[in-house]
Amino acid sequence: MACETIVEDGIDILVVGAGLGGSGAAWEARFWGQNKKIVIAEKANIDRSGAVAQGLYAINCYMGTRWGENKPEDHVRYARIDLMGLVREDLLFDMARHVDSTVHQFEEWGLPIMKDPKTGRYLREGRWQIMIHGESYKPIVAEAAKKSADKVFNRVCVTHLLMDDSRENRVAGAVGFNVRTGNYHVFKSRTVICGAGGASNIFKPRSVGEGSGRTWYAPWSSASAYGLMIDAGAKMTQMENRIVLARFKDGYGPVGAYFLHLKTYTQNCLGEEYESKWFPALQQMVGKEYLDPEVSHLTHRPIPTCLRNHCIISEVNAGRGPIHMVTMRAFQDPHLEEVGWENFLGMTVGQAVLWAATDVDPKNENPELTTSEPYVMGSHATCSGAWCSGPEDVSPPEYFWGYNRMTTIDGLFGAGDAVGGTPHAFSSGSFTEGRLAAKAACKYIDDGKAEGIGVSEEQIERRKQQIYKPLEHYRVYRNAIVAGDVNPHYINPKQGLDRLQKLMDEYCGGVTVSYMTNEKLLNIGLKKLKIMEEDLESLAAKDIHELLRAWELKHRHRAAECVTQHTLFRKETRWPGYYYRGDAMKVDDANWHVLTVSRRNPKTGEYTMEKAPCYHLV
Amino acid sequence: MFATNPFAALSASIAPDAIRFYVVLMVVLVVAGTLFDILHKGSARYFFANWRKSKGSAEVDLIPIAIQTVAVDVLASGEFCNPKRRVAHLLTMYGFIFYVVSTVVLVFNYPAAAQASFWPQLWWLGGAMVLVGGYWFWFFIRVDVAAEGNSPFRVVHADLFILSLLASVTLGLLWAWLGGVVLFASYSLATTVLFGGVPWSKLAHMFFKPAAAFEKRVAEANGTHQNLPTLTRDDPRQRERHSMELLKDAPMDMGLGIKREPPRHY
Amino acid sequence: MPTFVYMTRCDGCGHCVDICPSDIMHIDPTYRRAYNIEPSMCWECYSCVKACPQNAIDMRGYADFAPLGHSVRVQRDEKKGTIAWKIKFRNGTEKNFLSPITTKPWGQAIPKLAEVPGPSSEMRDSQLLYNEPKWIRMDDGGLHTLEAAGLKLKKGVQY
Fold first, then answer.
1. CA A8 – CA A13 distance, rounded (Å)
2. CB pair distance less than 8 Å for A181 and B245
3. What is the pTM of this model?
């Protein structure tokens, strides 16, 4: 395929990935840099890209400070407990104090937010959550980003960050290819805000045919945020903190509105309450500080998500599954019934399709729940991502190096799932992180930190060869066989993905092993990942679409390797219900009440692991 | 040139009856090809099975629907949502009709006459319309080029119809202008491929599309709407729905969002 | 539940190709109409279904676990600002829904930040974002800080 090289130069702020995080960055950047050049590079179409493509029915991070409903520090304490103590409380506090202005702006722009008829305020689903009719959430937010940006490059898959050739450890832009025309795109920029996706599909899913598309987190979240940043040598944190979700079986439809608004609850197959049975043993494992059922009625000390998962997993393994959600009573109320269905239609239509296909009417039967395969991302009840600097007025010295949300690479910022340590951000928090990163990026430029960046022609040419290699490899080695996909000289992206998913599932704690792993298994996993990395040099793509899948696989592989390294490093079971270390089946606050931080050396591929102190608000 | 019957000079080297036979043969090929296609693929069985399944609750009078289908969907190419595509299709469709009808009339009624009333002009006009609509479609409107980003010079199976149509008309007009055996032979070959290729090309859409448009209108009339939702904000009862509370004071025309722009964002 | 395209309805306009977040709606080289090239990467997000002006795209539940005979169809009307759903169960039960998708005309309530008054240097040096603190609280308080809340960050094990 003959491809042109298209260079976009003189960019001040390059937003890579325009989901909620990236859109927030592009939007806000225009205010702090009214004369700056802002460019967006998005691998799909910004109007429906990212995890919010089909919409949302709730905004799960809203304080309500204007009505005195909550304080930011309460949210910090809530997220801290849910994540078993290990979060970046400076980043969390910063996000919580700003997120309200984001939500109010959304309402101004036309996002339908439900109102409480009695008080006139936003209708609360729970203490932190409000309910919205958010089918067009992404198109509305995308419009704001488009109004601020100078140029939006849709269908451009960014594969690598460009690094400054004149100075170590400074970003210089990014490169990628156009998924429609096949052209090579080079973006030379003073700063990069990475708003790309977290990792879905790196573990074997429960449904393996067509159903492997019904992931909880979007299938196009190809770990590109992690792949891009790890490859560039940025430090990552908490990558072992993968999330497992208890959701409706197969469809993975959301349960938040059901539990909070419809007030449903769960039972085992005998119709019994089962969680309290497992609490005594669990308390032995994690300690009373993290699991105190008597105190749990105070909503800022919830029972952590992972521990609730643990109860489901244990109960099912003990032979008393499936776990059901008791909906029959709540659904008798026609208004709640409408909410229950619209909850899916506005957020996970696939669940409504499944119930229509299986004749499940929650009025007449209690639907099944299951625990999903693991995902690695950073804005839900989990906080994997890049190790970033915090805000100057809040962060302690170990957490601050000049600019808010900047990674350990100068000029490289993160937003949303890309940033580690900020769980419970969800859509509004991710957009807010984008805004914070944008302001900081403008300051970075205004402080003169982006002077003198140089990118060699050699780097640009080298990346071009790398990007198109799978196409070339296919073209040449396809000649070895008659037909079909089996060829001793290459693997295609689907074959590679199957292999990665099986590897991670069996060695790094996936569903078929009930989320269990240990040191020996993790080391075998790392060895296999290394061999797979060699085979990824023989990845073959027959067309541009497959080339997209090829690079998504490479990013997924890089993230998976980092996840395995982190899981090996943390010698404890901090989040039972997300995963277990069979050789260290307890929470070990004495040694491991720390954040794990890693860095992969871009030249040698070696990982350096370190412990970073964990700070708490008191 | 435009007033002269292009087939008149041909009758000197080829018998008029042979030309008429060829024209009839092309018609037969289209009919036979379409029937073969339908039988071989079973598409008629599918169509009628679908028709039976979608019988709705309301009784429908099919005649007015048929008339509407012909008037709007067939004659005015009404199914197109994009105005550019609609205009290009109208040009190509009517151009083709003028071109074919005038060819038949010239070959059957004026085999050797150089003067043939207005039919030669209609032949040229029809041909020109096909070329304008057809090349416009080929280079700019074709979805695999416009929305998918493929090169306009990439040729795939689906291009059999449009390419053979463009080839036939281009070569035909060129031959009528410049004459010569080579052009005539190429013109004949392209025309044979155009009409003979019916089982493998999209030419038969001229039969299938009206049937589909008719079926769609019937489904709307009989209340099934193909399972599409029918609730709208126009209904005052729906405006009172609890879920519609937030739109109580909003304008009825919110403008366009994503649909504002054509589907070409790369 | 991946998408499929009705042969008789698709006219090859390209809206679905343009919008699909997964890059899986493409044009078939034989029919020049759209189809789903990779159902295992289909999230059933319905972006293409909503975008199709001919209602030519529909959904069939994932074959892994969804029996046949159901229908979940949608009409997204930008002009009216609404989205309508019709769910038909395999056993024939039908449910209908209608809800808003925007409360304001599209794009009109979003300012162009290039044209608003820019930030003062005081605002630049502060921790405030655009339009703050106005949009966070209705009283005279400023942005929340650790000092204002009487908190500090302490290293080590705390609960």
1. 12
2. no
3. 0.96
